[in-house]
Specification:
The complex is a heterodimer of chains A (241) and B (321). With 241 residues, chain A is an alpha/beta fold. Chain A has 8 helices and 10 strands. Chain A has a 6-stranded mixed beta sheet, sandwiched between helices. In chain B, strand 1 and strand 2 form a beta hairpin. The mean pLDDT of chain B is 86. Chains A and B meet through helix 2 and strand 6 of A and helix 9 and helix 10 of B.
Chain lengths: 241, 321
């Protein structure tokens, strides 16, 4: 569904990704060291950073979509919630996911509001709906971000380091949701968290030396991990089950 | 209960306001036809209350808009130098002695608007060179621009005659003295249009107040929406400043007070901010007339005396977090 052709990204004169060509037809997990360009890859797919080369989504160049059309195809969940409205409630925040679906200049419809409530129930956070988003814990905020992406009803969901700020308990909850969502959405998971990637169990794209290598399966092998990360592993003993 | 009392108090001021001033009026005189009191009431005081209300709404709405679009509590047309740009434009028109130019619109209004507009474009242009999200630098740019404009206004001042300078000085301190209904009605219309414009974009603003990237990913053309709203607000500020001179701090404090009283998401605060801004400026204006000073205190001085300490309080309370 996503195809990258000769993608090249530079930031402040430093080349981060060079000549990356990839066909992403199904779920993938993107792994790599700090600063290897994982997040840049995600942002290039979302057209949030400048790049050369081409990104196709569903056969069409990203720039050829209107922003509204693209929002219906693709949603992006950042690692950490950035929010400058300290008063917006969870329900109001999640409803914003419906923006691309509502008639411009009109209010959100009852259907939009119902979808929002169903999503909050699905993620077990309906009890938080009146609370200001800014008052929630990191784990709750991540769930609220997922809820917003789900109300957007896009085919593709990109998770950018979803467990980076979470304790193991909350990380497990998020991991379960991500794995479950594979049934309805194409999930692109960008992460450092090997336990998460192992649990979600998608094919892996590993970014190293500015290029991407594709591993259909058998990525989580101690010898391979040592070769890629340069650190010895005594198997991923602490796995989510 | 507190909220009810507050709105009641503000409404009471609105009703009492036209009776207060250098000449005290009572209801009996006003109801008598052809008295001086009746004239003062209907041709000076009532239009002035409407003028103050509309001006307060424009300032408060613009403040709310700027704080939301730039995601910074200290952003207002005043702190970003846009008011100063309008003052300089109006000052130049005054100095050149321009009267009415097009379709009965005073040159001073057109120059004021152009000054505001020029400053907005200059800020947008300069903002490209800042690292994205570094809005503090934008604020510093605004302050630099303000100082520059003030210096340029001084040059205009030194080139002017004593008569022109007297008008100019009075102008830079902000004044709500007007005669007749034409100006207040024009300004009320501008305030209404600004409100309607912001209200139509309330959902876009709600997303923009979260983050620019998220707004884009949800389907908003952030650059276009930002530009439309900034232009609309500059139009309002430019027209207002060219009539009244700069009135500082209203755009800064009113949105904050409303948010403290009503901790709600932005699109539920638009109407409240517009109304509260109107009431607040009527209150300040009533003070200037009620104080019985030798000559009437300029409104800009009153709002600065209230707003200055509040500004300091804001910065300190922000630092505490």
């Amino acid at each position: 569904m996503i195809e990258l052709k000769e993608l090249q990204c530079a930031f402040n004169g430093r080349v981060i990704l060079e000549n990356v060509s990839l066909k992403i037809d199904s779920h993938i997990s993107v792994l790599g060291a700090n600063g290897s360009g994982k997040s840049t890859l995600a942002k290039a797919i979302c057209d949030l950073v400048a790049f050369s080369g081409t990104v196709f989504i569903a056969g069409k160049k990203t720039q050829e979509y209107t922003l509204n059309e693209r929002a219906k195809l693709l949603s992006y969940i950042p690692a950490k919630l950035e929010i400058h409205d300290p008063y917006i409630s969870v329900e109001e925040f999640v409803l914003l996911g419906r923006f691309a679906h509502k008639k411009s200049l009109f209010d959100y419809s009852d259907k939009d509001k119902n979808i929002t409530l169903q999503t909050l129930e699905f993620l077990n956070i309906v009890h938080l709906k009146e609370n200001p988003v800014s008052s929630l814990s990191s784990g709750e905020q991540q769930l609220v971000l997922i809820a917003q992406a789900l109300t957007q009803q896009s085919k593709i969901i990109i998770f950018d380091e979803p467990t980076a700020n979470l304790d193991p308990h909350n990380a497990k909850i998020i991991a379960q949701h991500i794995k479950g969502l594979k049934e309805w959405h194409q999930i692109i998971l960008i992460t450092h968290d090997l336990h998460l990637a192992c649990y979600v169990d998608s094919p892996v794209v590993f970014i190293k030396d500015k290029t991407a290598a594709f591993y259909e399966k058998e990525f989580f092998d101690d010898a391979r991990l040592e070769e890629l990360y340069g650190v010895a592993f005594e198997s991923l003993a602490v796995k989510y089950v | 209960m507190f909220k009810f009392a507050l709105w009641f108090f503000l409404l009471a001021i609105l009703v009492i306001s036209p009776f207060i001033g250098a000449v005290s009026l009572n209801l009996g005189d006003i109801l008598n036809a052809d008295t001086l009191a009746r004239n003062i009431f209907f041709e000076l005081r009532l239009p002035r209350v409407l003028f103050a209300f509309a001006a307060g709404s424009i300032l408060a709405l613009s403040g709310l808009l700027f704080q939301t679009l730039f995601r910074n509590a200290l952003m207002t047309p005043y702190t970003l130098g846009i008011s100063s740009g309008a003052v300089l434009g109006a000052g130049i028109a005054l100095k050149l002695g321009l009267g009415t130019l097009f379709f009965g619109v005073a040159a001073i209004s057109i120059f004021g608007f152009l000054g505001a507009l020029f400053t907005v474009f200059l800020l947008l242009y300069l903002a490209q060179f800042l690292r994205s999200g570094h809005h503090e630098s934008l604020l510093l740019l605004g302050i630099a621009l303000s100082l520059f404009y003030t210096a340029a206004l001084m040059v205009v001042f030194y080139l002017g005659s004593a008569m022109q300078n007297d008008v100019l000085i009075r102008f830079t301190m902000g004044s709500l003295s007007i005669i007749g209904w034409q100006t207040p009605l024009l300004l009320a219309f501008v305030a209404f249009m600004l409100f309607v414009g912001i209200y139509l974009y309330r959902f876009e603003l709600q997303l923009l107040s979260i983050s620019e990237h998220q707004a884009q990913l949800k389907g908003i053309n952030t650059k276009r929406v930002t530009l439309i709203l900034l232009l609309l607000s500059s139009l309002g500020i430019g027209i207002l400043v060219s009539i009244s001179g700069p009135i500082g701090f209203v755009g800064l404090i009113v949105p904050h007070i409303v948010a403290k009283i009503y901790p709600q998401t932005i699109n539920k605060r638009i109407l409240k901010t517009a109304l509260f801004g109107g009431f607040f400026l009527v209150f300040c204006d009533t003070l200037t007339r009620g104080l019985q000073t030798q000559s009437e205190l300029p409104i800009g001085i009153v709002t600065a005396l209230i707003g200055g300490p509040f500004f300091i309080y804001l910065i300190i309370s922000k630092g505490k977090k």
